[in-house]
Write a structure and sequence with these properties.
By secondary structure, the chain is α+β, with helices and mostly antiparallel strands. It has helices at 2-15, 27-37, 42-55, 59-64, 67-74, 81-96, 105-109, 116-127, 136-145, 155-168, 174-187, 206-210, 270-282, 341-353, and strands spanning 227-237, 241-246, 257-258, 261-263, 286-298, 303-313, 325-330.
């Protein structure tokens, strides 16, 4: 085990990635980076992290920020529950722990949005707690090093991963070792075809010796995800303002602003679906006009094709029957309202079209 740790740390000294959060010792900023990196590529996260650090440099500043401020800084990273959990957890740490992060893995896991991996990463990197942070990169590297034949998500595989990790941690800095394995997985031990000739651990890698490295880790086939047809109404009023609705709590993307609409049901065309949705959501009637654009987007378990139409209000003034609230907003203020990716694209297209002057 010492051979693996020593060889890896020697490689890491030379090849470690230059990442802005690697320079941080404040567990708050390490925590923010780890949450941002969940299901998101490093190169995508870097500008978000730097912007976040500029606007919310301390845990206290995050705890005292409004939800709208937090969601605007997060906009574009997706999985918005991560941002809301960051906000809630910061408030909890400020209230119950005096603004100081708990060092204990178990206590860390009690905070909103912090699971086993994130708790282990924070504890090991910031407080040198001897735990292995099993992210996707480390699981892949471990699975190849010991040639695990079971599906990586199985209980038996997890037991092997944890046991192997524990044996590696004696007499080494846990945080540094975890980050070294993360970098090895990102730079060398890649998904699909690892670059074994460049790997500092190839002499110790059982799957490399067995020629099974391209088949590890073993994964279970994912089910195909459905695609839904969705319509959105860009409702314009005199004065060049457009209707935005704040998504309800408890549903998808709660707290984000959108152009109202919904799914096209079986047997409906776009116009019929949009008139129905607006009546159900806003208790009014619209006349559906020109298509502004079509937008494709994938969520974790399904995909959507969204078609946005310019609409005219021909019924009574809208009421927020399903949304938290509604507002009439001019183009120049759209950037002040946190939106999901598709609605932001619609806003950009809308303002580029300059329909207010037509």
């Amino acid at each position: 085990m010492h051979e693996i740790s020593n060889a890896l740390l020697e490689w890491y000294t030379i090849h470690q990635r230059s990442l802005p959060w690697r320079l941080e010792t404040d567990p708050y900023l390490v925590w923010v980076s780890e949450i941002m990196l969940q299901q998101t590529r490093v190169e995508t996260v870097i500008p978000y992290f730097l912007k976040w650090k500029e606007h919310l440099p301390t845990l206290r500043s995050l705890a005292l920020a409004t939800e709208e401020e937090v969601l605007l800084l997060w906009e574009g990273l997706g999985y918005y529950s991560r941002a809301r959990n960051l906000h809630s957890a910061a408030q909890l740490v400020l209230e119950k722990f005096g603004g100081e992060f708990p060092h204990n893995v178990t206590q860390l896991q009690r905070l909103p949005g912090i699971g086993e991996y994130t708790a282990s990463a924070i504890a090991s990197i910031c407080f040198n707690v001897p735990v292995v942070a099993l992210d996707a990169n480390i699981k892949r590297v471990f699975a190849r090093l010991i040639d695990i034949e079971d599906a990586i998500t199985s209980r038996s595989a997890k037991k092997q991963l944890v046991e192997f990790g524990k044996n590696l941690l004696s007499e080494v800095d846990a945080g540094e070792l975890n980050q070294a394995f993360m970098d090895l997985g990102s730079l060398v031990c890649l998904p699909g075809e690892p670059d074994c000739m460049r790997c500092p651990l190839n002499r110790s890698c059982i799957s490399y010796q067995n020629g099974t490295q391209n088949q590890r880790p073993v994964t279970r086939k994912k089910k195909g995800s459905p695609t839904y047809q969705v319509v959105a109404a860009v409702i314009q009023k005199e004065g060049g303002v457009f209707l935005l609705a704040k998504r309800p709590k408890g549903g998808m993307l709660p707290g984000l602003w959108e152009f109202p609409g919904g799914k096209v049901e079986v047997g409906e065309d776009d116009t019929t679906a949009l008139v129905r949705e607006i009546n159900e959501e806003l208790d009014t009637i619209v006349s559906v006009g020109n298509l502004i654009g079509e937008y494709h987007h994938a969520y974790t378990h399904f995909k959507v094709i969204v078609r946005a139409f310019l609409c005219e209000l021909i019924g009574s003034q809208p009421r927020a029957l399903e949304a938290q609230e509604i507002k009439w907003v001019p183009c120049e203020q759209m950037r002040e309202f946190a939106m999901g990716k598709v609605d932001r694209l619609i806003a950009h297209a809308l303002c580029d079209l300059d329909v207010t002057s037509s």
